[in-house]
Every structure is written in structure tokens, then in C-alpha cells.
Design goal:
The structure holds 2 protein chains of 2 kinds. By secondary structure, chain A is an alpha+beta fold. Chain B has 2 domains: about 180 residues, no CATH class; about 240 residues, no CATH class. The radius of gyration of chain B is 33 Å and the shape is elongated. In chain B, a hairpin with a 2-residue loop joins strand 9 and strand 10. Chain B has 14 helices and 14 strands. Classes of the chains: A alpha+beta, B alpha+beta. At the A-B interface, helix 1, strand 3, helix 4, helix 7 and helix 9 of A face helix 2, helix 3, helix 10 and helix 12 of B.
């Protein structure tokens, strides 16, 4: 009996564990795919730049649970030692979430007056983490290169920054100097304007395009677009992964269920002698099958209950190990697991009991 | 006598032995399939992740330091430094050349449209056929490196077919709308070096900056920018191993900082940094750098998928092990009668254990072999349905499964046999 119970419990554990993982994988994997960075961008739809209000309004249309991070960007031409460069202002906390792939030699800036320098620019200017750099902004909107050098009465604003880190991305970001939004405002004297916003949203492609349409329609002066490279590829890869987990789940379940069934059969076949004795004592076939079934179903139910508990423990362990996050408990899985294990045990009991009851009791008892 | 008894046990109790063999076969097939998938899933998912495009860019050396810093405002000149088109084939000759799936060169120039506007014109390969002197042949180009492009009307440029020389071009959807051109139209473009009438063969939606550009063949762009035989940059898509401590050390401090042994390991592992290093060795005056957005994320996703599969595999191995040993225990316990009889007529304990174990092991071997082939089938079903390609069967799975099955059957039968041997024959035979 213990053997049978163990087999059923293991089967049920695998069932509930794998099904829980299967349901949770898309969500968890989707989060991993956010490593690829922003999958939606807001750009101005007219000639005006984006305002904080418009960005906030647009963000409020996205389910806050799905919004992994957002970072507004503002680009301005500045000069460093008379050299024209591009400065980007952003919210570093947001950028850390939308661009998890940024590799920083040093640290992220944490307060005003600190800057992150792209690797290429850092090499040109010979800057390292801990150095200071002075950014100069021409208030008349002209770059230094366009101006004659003798002209000393330039209407300029300059600020000194401490470089906290050098940014390595392998992309265009390596050419920029990143500073905080507040610093950019004091440098340029203009506030509340942004060129674009990058958003990382954990949602399927269809859902994303719904959001993009809704936002573009409802928010004035702002158009939301999907970063096709990220969304399309994510769709392809994620659907493959899901199919993989589904197939693996189905095959593992199928084989496990057959294993449980054969064990149950062996356990019941062993009791042919008992069946023979009962028959000899005058029990009807029906009552024997009834009793065996009752026993089997009880075992199935207990095993299923145990299994749904251990399955959740297993799924939780997997989730914590692989994705560093806990898993949701699906209550509906408990009745399903119990039902399936009862069914499997029931079916695997019926066959051997039936064949045992068909046999002449005298033969069974004699041991043939 | 020994063999006769075993033969008898195997054939007289046919149905029971078949049941055990089937269970063992199922367990073995589960173990085989899961182990093979687990070992191959990294490669398969890596292939899928190539959908994200290139993970390495190669630019000329001077360019990488100075590039565009001085040309932020001017859109007329092309970058000063170039790579040679003839060097492209060398990418496939590096140590990890086999891992390079695709690459494509780019020539960028700015061209004036009839309405006076300046647009970015890029020359590249679309599906360029390469016959390398190693005898290898491949089709390289942006057709597969830009898998997310949606060609809205018209078609991709087919370099092997009709459009090798005739100034064909593909235009971004945003630019096409602005200019009101579509497939089949001719578009006059002019640069400081010459002018051409481009045949638009397709309009693409790239969902990014590229929507406002024109892509044409390498030759056309080279003629327009007067850079025959020269290219501006190369994008490379390579299968890589996720970075570890060693790769990070090499990437931040340079390969020179590694000890000779570490250097060897690093060089001979397909880290993105070592592939970059090898490309730099192969192509003179070039700087190859990983595209972090793709390279880093690939690593994370590969690691997670593999870990997930390992844990699922462990669960299923555990499940099949318990299933098998359970059944074996049950079937040995069932034979208390027979063992009692054997003891009653004077059989020694070791003889009895020998007989029972041999029977079980023979059944296990038969079931295990059948299970291996069933598992092979399951793995292929999964491989074909999910990835559309066969799962490679690793030879190392065979000993692992064999050892697993033998240990599991022994663990399942030995305690049961020991327990039966402790019984008194008289009691057993009496039926208590």
C-alpha cells in the first residue's frame, strides 16, 4: 500500500509541479526578455517636444504591473574643451531598468553633478571614473565648432561634473555623456522638454500594439511606437520556448502517468489471492470491484493531495533558483491534480481486479 | 540449474516481467529524452535568439575612436577610415569561424533626393552568396540579420537572381510615405560623387530609425560614395557562450592580463569577447565590439533556459527512478512464496539473491535498451515540433541512463530481497 501511495504522490507531484511551471514560464521568461531593453518608445508626434505631463498621462494608460521601467531622454549639443559632443539627460533609475544590458565601469550616478560617459567619448577625452569634466552649453543654440574662436563674448553656461562611470554598450550610447534631468535643466535653462521616452513593458506583442494605438490616439502630441526588433524577436523566441515547455510537460506527464498505472497494476495483481479467497467465501464480483475501487480512489485522493503540495514546493524551488522570484499558487490545480490521480489510479485498478474476478477462485487459491 | 531457473522465471511469468520491462522502458525513455533535450537546448535556443540580429559590430580602428564626434552636424561626408571588402571572407577563417552564422558589410553615405532633402543611403548584402577558399559556401546578408523587417509591398532584393547590378533599392516605410513612392518606382539620388536612378523593389517596416533610410546593394552604394572595394562597418551574428568570470576579466582588463593557461581557455571558448578578439586578428586595422544589448541578454536567457530544463530534467529523472524502484520492490515482495519455497528446499541466501537480481537486471537491460530508443523518438518529436530541427543525440547520455537504470533497479530490489530472506520459510509458505 505504501508503495502505491508513494507512486501516486510522485506522479501527482510531477503533474502539479510541471503544470505550475508551464503556466508561470511565459510570465517569468517574458521578464527575462526585458533584458533586451525598451520595447516601446514615445516620440513627439508634432514639432513640439514631449512634456512631462504627456509622458505621465501616456504611462498611466499602461497597466502599472506590466511596466518594468521607463526612462525619458533629452538630447542637447554641448561642448567639452571646444569639442562638440552630445549630452543626454535621463532618469538614471529608469535607465537602469530599461537598459539592463548597459555595462558600467564604475558606478551609476546617484546624485546631481554626476555624469556617465560613453566609452568612445571617454577614450577621446581620456576620462576615467572619478575624473571631472566641464560641459559647456551655448545658450544661443550654436555649437562651438560653428563659432569663431576669438569670439570670447559667447553666451554660455557651464557646469562641472564628476564622472562616476564609463558606459560600454557596443551601440550609439557610447558616444554620449549622460547627466541627470535636473542638471540638464540648470545647464540649459529650459525645463520640461524631452525628445523621447523609452519604456520596457512586460506584455505580449498584440497587447503592446493595443497600448501603442490607444496611447497615440488619447495623448496629444505624443506617438507611441513599438521597437520592432525587440517585440518581433521576443514573440518568435518566447513562443518557441513555451512550445518546448508544453511538449516536455505533456511527455513527462504521459510517461509518469503510465508509470503510476503500471505500479498500481502490480500492486493490485499481487492481491489476486485475496480476491480468490473473497470469491470463495461468496463475495460478488461487484462488491469486490467496489471495494478495490474505493481503496484505489482513496489512495489516489491522498496521493493527489500530497502531490499538489510537493509539486508547488518544487515549482517554487525552480522559480526561485531560475528566475529569482516566487510563484503564484494556483488553487485550481489542487482539485485538478486530485482528480487526475484518482482517475489514473481508478483506471489502473479496474483492469487487474476485473481479470482477477474472472478467474475461478479455486485456481487462484491453488496458486496457478 | 541457475540458468534454467532464470529462464523459467522470465518466461513463465511473462506478463509480469513485461510489465516491469515496460515501466523500466518508460522511465529510461523519459530520462533519455530529457537528458538529450537538456544538453541540446542551449544550442537550439541560441539559434533562435539569432532573430535579434547581429551581436558583434566591426568598425575601422581610427573610426571607432573618432567616429562621428566631428561630424555630428554634417551629413555630407562619409567616415574617413574604411575596411577592405576583400577581407570579409576572413571572418569565417577565425578559430570560431564555424560559430559565425551570418555577417554583412555596410557602406553608409548621405544622398540628396530630387526635393533637396538628404537621406541616409546604406549599401549592404542582402543574400550574398559567398564561396570561401576553405570550400565552404554560405549566403550572408541582412535578409536574416533583419528578421524583424516587414516587407510591406514588393520583395527583398535577391542578389543571386535578377537584381545584382541594376541599382535596386529598398526604402523605409516612413521615407516612402513622405516621398510618395512605392515598389516599381524610380528614385533619383545624387551625392557629391555621382548620381543614380534607383529601382525600388520593396518597402520595409523596420520599426525604428531605419524606416527613414534607403538600403541598396553594396556595389551601388560604393559607386555613389566613390569607395569601390571599401566598406564602413560589418555586422556579425555569432553563436556565443554566455560570459563567465573569466570572460568578464578578459573583456574589462584585456586578454593581455590573463595568465597563459587562462588565455588559452578564453581563446578556445566561444565567448563574445574572444570571437571579437579573433575577428580583430583576422581583419587588419579593425575594432570588433559586442553589441551589449544582444550579447548580454542572450547570455541571460540561455542560462535561464538551461537551468529551467536542468531542474525539469531532475524532476523527471527523480520521478522515473521512483516509479521503477517502486515497481521492482513491489514485484520482488510479491515473490515471498517462491523464495520461501526455495529456502525450504535448502537454497542458500546468495543463490536466491543471485537468481532474483539476475532476472531483474536482464529485464532492466531489455527495458532500458527499448527505452533509449523510445526516448530518442520523443526527443526528435520535441525537436521537430518546437525547433524544426533534429535534437543531437549525445553519446554521453547512454552511460548516464544505463548507470541510472541499474542503480535504480538495484536500489529497488536489494532491500526487498533482504527483507524476504529474513522471513522464515515455514511462515511464508503457510501464508502468513
Amino acid at each position: 500500500m505504501l508503495v502505491a501511495l508513494l507512486a501516486i504522490a510522485v506522479g501527482a507531484t510531477i503533474l502539479s509541479g510541471l503544470v505550475t511551471i508551464y503556466y508561470d514560464v511565459p510570465r517569468q521568461m517574458g521578464e527575462q526578455f526585458r533584458n533586451y531593453g525598451a520595447n516601446m518608445i514615445f516620440t513627439p508626434s508634432g514639432s513640439d517636444k514631449l512634456s512631462t505631463d504627456a509622458i505621465n498621462m501616456a504611462e498611466s494608460l499602461i497597466d502599472s504591473k506590466e511596466l518594468v521601467g521607463s526612462a525619458p531622454y533629452r538630447y542637447e549639443n554641448i561642448t567639452v574643451y571646444e569639442r562638440p559632443l552630445m549630452a543626454a539627460a535621463t532618469d538614471f533609475e529608469g535607465a537602469e531598468k530599461t537598459c539592463p544590458y548597459w555595462r558600467i565601469d564604475g558606478e551609476w550616478p546617484s546624485k546631481n553633478g554626476e555624469a556617465l560617459v560613453g566609452k568612445e567619448t571617454a577614450e577621446t577625452l581620456d576620462l576615467r571614473a572619478g575624473d571631472t569634466v566641464t560641459l559647456v552649453y551655448d545658450l544661443e543654440g550654436q555649437t562651438a565648432a560653428a563659432k569663431p574662436k576669438e569670439n570670447t563674448e559667447r553666451n554660455q553656461n557651464s557646469l562641472e561634473f564628476r564622472v562616476t562611470g564609463v558606459l560600454d554598450t557596443g551601440g550609439n550610447e557610447e558616444k554620449y555623456i549622460f547627466i541627470s534631468i535636473a542638471d540638464m535643466e540648470s545647464l540649459t535653462g529650459k525645463s520640461d522638454i524631452f525628445d523621447m521616452t523609452e519604456l520596457s513593458v512586460s506584455a505580449s506583442q498584440e497587447q503592446l500594439s493595443d497600448y501603442a494605438e490607444k496611447i497615440s490616439a488619447e495623448v496629444d502630441g505624443l506617438s507611441a511606437r513599438l521597437v520592432k526588433r525587440v517585440t518581433q524577436s521576443e514573440n518568435t523566441v518566447l513562443s518557441k520556448l513555451q512550445a518546448l515547455v508544453l511538449l516536455v510537460t505533456v511527455i513527462v506527464l504521459l510517461l509518469t502517468m503510465i508509470c503510476v498505472a503500471t505500479t498500481m497494476m502490480a500492486v493490485v495483481t499481487e492481491r489476486r489471492r485475496e480476491v480468490g479467497l473473497r470469491k470463495a467465501l461468496g463475495a460478488s464480483n461487484k462488491s469486490i470491484i467496489f471495494e478495490f475501487m474505493g481503496e484505489g480512489l482513496l489512495l489516489g485522493a491522498i496521493g493527489g493531495l500530497l502531490g499538489s503540495f510537493f509539486g508547488f514546493v518544487f515549482a517554487q524551488a525552480v522559480s526561485v533558483n531560475v528566475f529569482n522570484s516566487s510563484i503564484q499558487f494556483h488553487w485550481v490545480l489542487i482539485p485538478i491534480t486530485i482528480l487526475v490521480s484518482v482517475l489514473v489510479t481508478g483506471i489502473s485498478c479496474v483492469l487487474p481486479v476485473r481479470s482477477a474476478t474472472d478467474v475461478d477462485p479455486a485456481l487462484v487459491l491453488k496458486g496457478e | 540449474m541457475f540458468f534454467r531457473m532464470i529462464k523459467g522465471a522470465l518466461f513463465r511469468q511473462k506478463s509480469k516481467m513485461i510489465l516491469i520491462a515496460v515501466t523500466i522502458a518508460l522511465g529510461a525513455s523519459l530520462a533519455t529524452a530529457m537528458l538529450n533535450i537538456m544538453l541540446d537546448v542551449g544550442d537550439k535556443v541560441n539559434q533562435e535568439l539569432k532573430a535579434y540580429g547581429a551581436n558583434i559590430t566591426v568598425v575601422p580602428k581610427e573610426n571607432s575612436v573618432l567616429s562621428e564626434l566631428y561630424s555630428l552636424d554634417e551629413k555630407e561626408e562619409t567616415a574617413a577610415a574604411h575596411l577592405k571588402e576583400d577581407d570579409l571572407g576572413k571572418i569565417k577563417t577565425i578559430f570560431w569561424g564555424f560559430n559565425i552564422i551570418d555577417f554583412t558589410p555596410f557602406v553608409n553615405t548621405y544622398a540628396k533626393l530630387p526635393n533637396g532633402e538628404s537621406v541616409k543611403l546604406t549599401g549592404t548584402w542582402f543574400n550574398h552568396h559567398l564561396a570561401l577558399n576553405t570550400g565552404e559556401e554560405l549566403d550572408a546578408g541582412i535578409h536574416s540579420l533583419r528578421s524583424w523587417w516587414d516587407v510591406k509591398n514588393g520583395r527583398w532584393i535577391d542578389e543571386q537572381g535578377d537584381s545584382a547590378d541594376d541599382n535596386s533599392a529598398m526604402i523605409g516605410v516612413a521615407l516612402a510615405e513622405k516621398l510618395g513612392v512605392s515598389t516599381g518606382d524610380k528614385l533619383e539620388v545624387k551625392t557629391s560623387k555621382g548620381s543614380k536612378a534607383l529601382n525600388i523593389t520593396g518597402v520595409y517596416d523596420a520599426g525604428g530609425d531605419e524606416d527613414e533610410q534607403i538600403f541598396t546593394t553594396l556595389k551601388t552604394a560604393q559607386e555613389l560614395s566613390d569607395t569601390t572595394g571599401l566598406i564602413d562597418s560589418i555586422e556579425v551574428s555569432a553563436l556565443t557562450t554566455p560570459d563567465n568570470e573569466l570572460a568578464r576579466k578578459a573583456a574589462t582588463k584585456g586578454p593581455g592580463s590573463l595568465s597563459p593557461a587562462d588565455y588559452e581557455t578564453w581563446y578556445c571558448t566561444a565567448y563574445v569577447s574572444s570571437i571579437c578578439y579573433q575577428i580583430q586578428e583576422a581583419i587588419p586595422d579593425s575594432v570588433a565590439s559586442p553589441v551589449r544589448q544582444v550579447a548580454e541578454s542572450e547570455g541571460t536567457i540561455l542560462d535561464k533556459t538551461q537551468l529551467l530544463m536542468i531542474l525539469i530534467t531532475i524532476l523527471s529523472l527523480f520521478g522515473s527512478a521512483l516509479g521503477i524502484s517502486n515497481l521492482v520492490t513491489a514485484s520482488v515482495m510479491e515473490r515471498s512464496n517462491e523464495i520461501g519455497l526455495l529456502k525450504a528446499i535448502g537454497a542458500r541466501d546468495y543463490r536466491i539473491s543471485g537468481i532474483v537480481l539476475t532476472e531483474i537486471i536482464i529485464t532492466a537491460v531489455v527495458g532500458g535498451v527499448a527505452g533509449y530508443f523510445m526516448g530518442y523518438g520523443f526527443a526528435q518529436i520535441i525537436g521537430q515540433t518546437v525547433f524544426g530541427s533534429a535534437i543531437e543525440m549525445k553519446p554521453m547520455v547512454i552511460p548516464v541512463v544505463a548507470v541510472l537504470i541499474i542503480i535504480v533497479t538495484l536500489v529497488g530490489s536489494i532491500p526487498a530481497i533482504r527483507m524476504l530472506l529474513r522471513l522464515r520459510p515455514a511462515e511464508v509458505l503457510h501464508g502468513r
